[in-house]
Amino acid sequence: MDEAEQARVQTRDWLARFVIGLGLCPFAAEPYRQGRIAFVVCEATADDAVYRAFVETVEALLAQPPEQQETALLILSRALTDFDDYLQMLDALEHALNEAGLDGVLQLASFHPDYRFEGVPEDDPANYSNRSPYPTFHLIRERELAAALDRYPQPETIPARNVERLRALGLSRIRALLGTR
Fold it and tell me: Which of 17, 125, 150, 155 is exposed most, by the fewest CB atoms within 10 A?
């Protein structure tokens, strides 16, 4: 298996076993089962190539109807391993979406192996709600997300529920689920 396929498989497995398996995102299971999530791997290392891959992923997502491709994960197999560098790119990509007039059309969620919420210790299990095997940008169609939120009772409680669930699991159980040390 080549590096790109390994990144795709590991991310798909993380989504299925961890995110969906623990119920961290109650909206992910259906599009996952129906094959409506694009797993796009970018093997580039340069920021400009990552930016181009992001633009291409946005264009490909918008070219498909939501019934075929609801969301997309841009997985960076070699780039932005430093969390601060990743956050700088996240800001640039959010700005690009806004400049392209896609505010209210697409939302960008962020995942990184070293994700750390501001003011939270590095080893706090809560950080694992946004930790992934590779730096990843998640493009979400806002219309579909809004519809899912309307069907979910008290969606505003999801982040706090996730923090509580992950802290109750503890680091050793989380790492065992993820196959990490």
Answer: 150
Angstrom distance (rounded) from CA 68 to CA 46: 31
Burial class (CB in 10 A: 0-12, 13-18, 19+), 133: buried
Sign of CA dihedral 73, 74, 75, 81: negative
Q: Which fold has domain 3-178?
A: Translation Initiation Factor IF3 (3.30.110)
Q: Edge-to-edge strands of the sheet including 106-111? A: 37-42, 71-76, 136-141, 106-111
Q: Is 138 exposed, middle or buried (0-12, 13-18, 19+ CB in 10 A)?
A: buried
Domain range list for the chain = 3-178
Structure tokens at 46: 């340069």
Q: For residue 6, what pLDDT is reported?
A: 98
Does the predicted model carry a pTM greater than 0.85? Answer: yes
Identify the band that residue 181 occupies on the pLDDT scale cut at 50, 70 and 90.
low
Chain Cα centroid distance, residue 91:
15
